[in-house]
Amino acid sequence: MEQLHELLQQVIPDGERVLTEKADLASYSYDASFGVYMPEVVVQPLSTCEVAEILKLANKHKIPVYPRGQGTSLSGGPLPVRGGIVMDLSQWTSKLEIDTENMLAVVSPGVTAQAINNAALVHGLIYPPDPSSMNIATIGGNLAENSGGPKGLKYGVTKDYVIGLEVVTPEGEVIHTGGKTMKNVTGYDLTKLIVGSEGTLGIITEAILRLYPKPQATETLMALFDDIIDAGRAISNILSAGIIPAKLEIMDKASVEAVEAYRPTGLPTNIDALILIELDGHPEAIKDEIKRVNDVCLQEKARSVQIAKTAEEAAQLWLARKLVSPAIVRVKPTKISEDATVPRSKIPDMFQRLKEIKQKYNIDLVVFGHAGDGNLHPNIIADERDTEEMKRVEQAVEEIFQAAIELGGTLSGEHGIGTLKAPFMEMELGAVGVDMMKRIKQAWDPNDILNPGKIFPEPNQRFVLTND
Amino acid sequence: MTELAYQETLSCVQCGYCLPTCPTYITFKKETHSPRGRINLVKMAAEGKITYDDMTEAIDLCLGCRACETACPTNVQYGKILESAIEVLAKHKDEQLKSRVKTMKAFLFNQVVPNEHIRKVLGTGLAFYQKTGLQKVAQKMGVLHVLPENLHAFETILPSVEGPIKRAKRERFYEAVTPQPVLKVGFFVGCIMDTMFSSINTLSMKLLQQAGCQVTVIQEQGCCGALHQHSGLSNKTQELAKRNIEAFERYDFDYVVNSIGGCGAMLGEYPQLLADSPEWLERAERFSKKSVDISVILSQLTLPFKKSLPYKVTYQPSCHMTNVQKRVNEPLQMVQNIPGIDFISLPEAHMCCGSAGIYNIVRYKHSMKILDEKMKHVEALAQQPNIIVTTNPGCHLQMKLGVEREGLSQEIRVVHLVELLAEACGIEA
Predict the structure, then answer these.
(1) Stretch (H or E) spanning A361
(2) Do B359 and B380 contact (CB within 8 A), yes or no?
(3) Where exactly are the structural domains of chain B?
(4) For an interface test with A, which of B13, B60, B75 has the most A Cβ atoms less than 10 Å from its Cβ?
(5) A421 located within any domain
(6) Shared domain check, A382 and A338
(7) Looking at domain B6-96, which CATH architecture does it have?
(8) Which of A382, B82, B122, B418 has the most CB within a 10 Å radius?
(9) Which chain B residues are closer than 8 Å to A333 by Cβ?
(10) Residue in A14, A17, A27 to test binding to B, most B beta-carbons within 10 Å
(11) Is the pLDDT of residue B423 over 90?
């Protein structure tokens, strides 16, 4: 290891970006999911050349390398599960160029989606993907995990916006995929292969992203329901009426109750669900659409519908949704946020299954999330020190995955597989499906040095939700 | 309380939402110096996975600005975790410290800071040093280079301190200008404030008087204890807190008012400090409810503005005013209400300036890096301000140092909010 430090210091000579102190290693041993793994060294490269040299070194000595953004992953993406080198790319923020003619952004891996969107707004453009961690998480991490957010319903997710990448391969070679053109069918689409590969195939050192014109106006509406099934039907009917909201979020009874107990916003706690809708576009068009949404909700037995008259009122309506996270952890400290996703039409069935699972395992489960695209966030609140409870939680989460897959859905809508969900890959993809993915990994990374232990389960790996 | 606040660390879900709010993470560029990193280190130390020495640097370099608490979606009690770590480390270090250094430190905190007499002597010396012109001579001869760089840097920006005679002559009682006092106010002077910036205290009381308050300075008041608390000396802090609570209880004040963001935060946290003493908790709560920043009182009353001030003004809030006292609008509103002011808001104003109690003296180099970040935002303003307003003596000195370091002393003046209000009301100290 001493030797490794010396070699890395030759690549990064300024002495401040190769971290080996115990406190530093401990500080890169976790992310926002579960598990703590100490790396041997942390490096903070600031150029493609440095990344390439580090990977050449690691590949030669067969030392694992784990790319990391700001460590907001909910699936264990950057965890150094086999020790080795954590490569912190969050400090590499040097490039953020807006190409207004081509409506593109060209960015370094450490830039946040929020920063990209802010820079775009100056030119009347937007970068739509909006993971809730967008002002912290790096674009490198967003690309590696193919992150999405509430706006996924109308605008799609990260992969829908990336058209070109600079990537360093596990063997330390630099390649460029795609480019600045909207259309490009030259060879395999390696851009889309890298996006969502969770840092197992290459390290993204630069990205070319599409931007959209900023919508002229937005409208916000909140509808309260006495039955969550009615809310589910209202959602389907809004969408089948040809209206695609920018955001369509749902909160169940438990999340409304938690928010009201935490910081009262004046919501009635005897409702079964509420939905929040944001429409954007031409002011005249959305004025008409908001009226139609209002009518659909009332037809589906909404107790009441409120349309925000001002931007402040809209912010007030969204406040309840924002408060869900702090509100629910007041009950117990450990929060397990899931992102199993089902086809839109199966949302009411998924709600039913979640209700059954909640009762069966006697767990504190609240459901909220991006109802419009079927990406619900069942959140379980527990206490990690209560081992008996954590066992029940593990079983409940397994059953949530099963339910999602049985309903034609997927293990993960936007958080990624990482270490956490690796044991369930075969359940969704089948043995051959997993094997084909493994073959791609082997071809790209013959020495298995890049983010090993992710996506593919280790032999006999079990699903575990503890930090020890 | 000499153990780590382990239970509190467990409510951190490590989401990282605190990272962009943390000045040390932004400046020092590693997770170790982020709130999430520090909470994890405290947790690991409590679990015996790392040693106290391993977490020392990270804890020492925390500013304690508590901006992270405002971004935390799960309400982690960062202040409590930090203070527990400081206290545990202080105890741990004390065991290792050479006895001489230990005596010096104990003397400084137990005797000098809370002792009005010694402070007065120091204040007198400082005033004498400035008034006699020795300051200029010493500056010219470079005599001050014998001082450590950190003190030397502050030497050039020290305020003109009121002489002890003038300070001693200051009134102890200000009758309201209105026929009946609107409010009866006990004024909290603070130690550093009353030595370095006593004229701001005088102006504060005159402003309150003009706004219809009857103001009394009670002799029995003492140090708020903030510096002790931030150095891990919570027993001493508790002692000081009890002294203040007892002192003010004897009077019938509607409010206990101060002009010091940092002290105000400490006074407001007496209930947390004394939570384990049932006989004190209720008294602490009563005291803390009455204790408010001057901007809160003035924003409820009417000030007799006499002049229009044609200044371009920006405002650097005190972290403890914003994040602990949670007073964001009142001081801002007071600045903006001054007639004639052209207000320019400072980007990233919520980021600490690096003053942070005595951080800028004991962690001088790190503090200057944080200050440089702050000054970048000041210099990037589309219009250069003539004035930077602060609400705390520490921020005041630090911003002054920042202006000095950027060579802008001719262009930009740093003032306390109270000074600007007094100028607009035609009040002199």
Answers:
(1) helix A347-361
(2) no
(3) 6-96, 304-425
(4) B13
(5) no
(6) yes
(7) Orthogonal Bundle (1.10)
(8) B418
(9) 10-11, 13, 74
(10) A27
(11) yes
CATH hierarchy code of domain B304-425:
3.40.50
Length of chain B: 429
pLDDT of residue B344: 96
ipTM tops the 0.85 cut = yes
Residue A212 token pair: 């959209």
Residues A223 and A300 occupy one common structural domain: yes
Name chain B contacts of A26, Cβ cutoff 8 Å.
32, 40-41, 44, 49-50, 54
Task: Say if A285 falls within a structural domain.
Answer: yes
Cα→Cα distances B56→A14, A40, A419, B61, B104, Å: 24, 20, 32, 9, 21
Number of structural domains chain A divides into: 3
Q: Would an 8 Å CB–CB cutoff place B13 in contact with chain A?
A: yes
- Strands (E) in A160-272, as ranges, are 162-168, 174-178, 203-210, 212-213, 217-225, 247-252
The pLDDT tens digits of the residues spanning B268-323 come to 999 999 999 999 999 999 999 999 999 999 999 999 999 999 999 999 999 999 99
Q: How far apart are CA A431 and CA B192, in angstroms?
A: 71
Query: CB within 8 A of B296, min separation 6: which ones?
Result: B327, B330
**Can you give the CATH number for the domain in which A12 is found?**
3.30.43.10
Q: Which pair of tokens denotes residue A334?
A: 């450990």
- pLDDT tens digits, A344-395: 888 888 888 998 999 999 999 998 888 888 888 899 998 888 899 999 999 9
Reported as a single tens digit per residue, the pLDDT across A170-185 is: 999 999 999 999 999 9
Nearest CA in chain A to B35: A27
A332 close to A364: Cβ distance less than 8 angstroms: yes
The whole-angstrom distance between B373's CA and the closest CA on chain A is 15
Are A238 and A301 found together in one domain?
yes
Q: Does B163 touch chain A (CB under 8 A)?
A: no
Instruction: Please name the residues between 18 and 47 in chain B that touch chain A, using a CB distance below 8 Å.
Output: 19-20, 29-32, 34, 36-37, 40-41, 44
Residues of A in contact with B29 (CB under 8 A): 44, 91
Q: Which of A415, A440, A461 is the last residue of a domain?
A: A415
Residue A447 located in a structural domain: no
- Please state, as a whole number, how many other Cβ atoms lie within 10 Å of the Cβ of residue B154: 17
Question: What is the per-residue DSSP string for B51-88?
Answer: -HHHHHHHHHT-----HHHHH-TT---HHHHHHHHHHH
* Tokens at A16, concatenated: 């401040």
Identify the domain containing residue A236 by its residue range: 215-330
Last residue of a domain, one of A56, A88, A120: A88
Residue B111: band (very low, low, confident or very high) from pLDDT cuts 50, 70, 90? low
**Which contiguous run of DSSP H or E holds residue B342?**
strand B342-343
Contacts of A50 (CB under 8 A, 6+ apart): A11, A12, A43
* Mean pLDDT computed over every residue of chain A: 92
A242 pLDDT more than 80: yes
Q: What is the pLDDT of residue B134?
A: 44
Q: How far apart are CA A132 and CA A444, in angstroms?
A: 32
* Mean pLDDT of the A266-278 span: 92
Cβ-Cβ contacts under 8 Å, B41 against chain A: 23, 26-27
Residue A462, in any domain of the structure: no
Contacts of A75 in chain B (CB under 8 A): none
Model confidence at A340, in pLDDT bands (50, 70, 90)? confident
pLDDT at B97: 63
Asked if residue A297 and residue A389 are part of one domain, the reply reads no
Q: CATH number of the domain at A255, please.
A: 3.30.70.3450
SS3 for A223?
strand
Across the interface, of B14, B30, B51, the residue whose CB is closest to A24 is B30
Shared domain for A285 and A343, answered yes or no, is no
- Mean predicted confidence (pLDDT) in B64-83: 92
The CA-based angle B70-B76-B78, given to 5 degrees, is: 80
B54 and chain A in contact, CB less than 8 A? yes
